[in-house]
Amino acid sequence: MGDRSTIVISGWQSMSYLSDVGNICWFLEPEFTKQVRRLHQSVGNAVTEDRHIVVGTGSTQLFQAALYALSPPDAFEPISVVSAIPYYSSYPSITDYLKSGLYKWAGDAYTLKGDEPYIELVTSPNNPDGSIRQAVVNRDGGTVIHDLAYYWPQYTPITCLADHDLMLFTISKCTGHAGIRIGWALVKDKEVARKMTKFIELNTIGVSKDSQLRAAKILQVVSHSCEQLGYPEDSESFFKYASRLMADRWDRLRDAVSQSGLFSLPEFMPESCNYAGEMTTPHPAFAWLKCEGGIEDCENFLRGYNILTRTGKHFGAQGNYVRVSMLDREETFDMFIERLSNIRL
Ligand code: PMP
């Protein structure tokens, strides 16, 4: 996209803490709000009508804001936070690192016992295994946080307009701009949005305006490319381009895996994508690689071939699984494929 997403921020800009005093989320930049709504509208992946937008320093801060907002303030015991195995490995540590009196990590959602209140995290598509997920506990007294970081067309077919009560998104996975540290929550309930805003007020007194303005510009360029306004006729939309790269990487990974005969990967079925207007196949941001043939510590085994991965144990699973990033730089990915292809027992 060249210089299309360049912005200039003058020295006198963004000096106040406040951005939009009439809004529940008073540190939310109006231009960022506009571009978030526009992008969801262009992609068709989530409802934004009648939703409050809360901006965060990455969706990591919003996850913590959501736990704060959904936990009963004066309960006798901290509320249980669960997610189905394999879950995103940061959830347990983020939930427990401050030993909060409000909430505590309670592990795999499938093993949650009793009838106490709970908060369930649903990541879809899932990190680490790319599966499409729904809540599994489904009983009274529970609330659900939907982490939709990967619900973008380069990773998965957009099969429906998500309209859950609390949805988290992040520019880290939408375009790859993880260093900008911007995420957003789409929140149905006004009080939940208010409490999440309060958390961010107490935690960081708002979210960098410079980052919001930069994120707004990037999202604007992405929406513009989706709507194909004013670009040369042969230009691809951002998501088509990214989908092509992901498909290519997955093809190469599957070839390497079949050559070695030592590993297996999850299989994904094509589905009709409302955004692409055709059948598309999932190409997740991570590969959930299983070591076959009795190798119990897959992370260690691969380290022996200079391939760094993350053991399944961090995700509540077994050590014969590892998570591999599919989003690294081209040179790193090329090297990974070459090394994996050359493994022979
Ligand atoms: N949720 C999921 C499922 C993720 O995989 C990640 C990043 N690895 C995050 C949230 C964190 O995103 P952010 O950079 O917006 O804090």
UniProtKB/TrEMBL annotation:
Short name of one Pfam family: Alliinase_C
Gene3D superfamilies according to UniProt: Aspartate Aminotransferase, domain 1, Type I PLP-dependent aspartate aminotransferase-like (Major domain)
InterPro entries membership: Alliinase_C, Ethylene_sulfur-biosynth, PyrdxlP-dep_Trfase, PyrdxlP-dep_Trfase_major, PyrdxlP-dep_Trfase_small
Keywords linked to the UniProt accession: Pyridoxal phosphate
Ranges for domain Alliinase C-terminal: 2-343
One GO MF term attached to the UniProt entry: carbon-sulfur lyase activity
Family, similarity comment: Belongs to the alliinase family.
Protein name in the entry: Tryptophan aminotransferase-related protein 2-like isoform X3
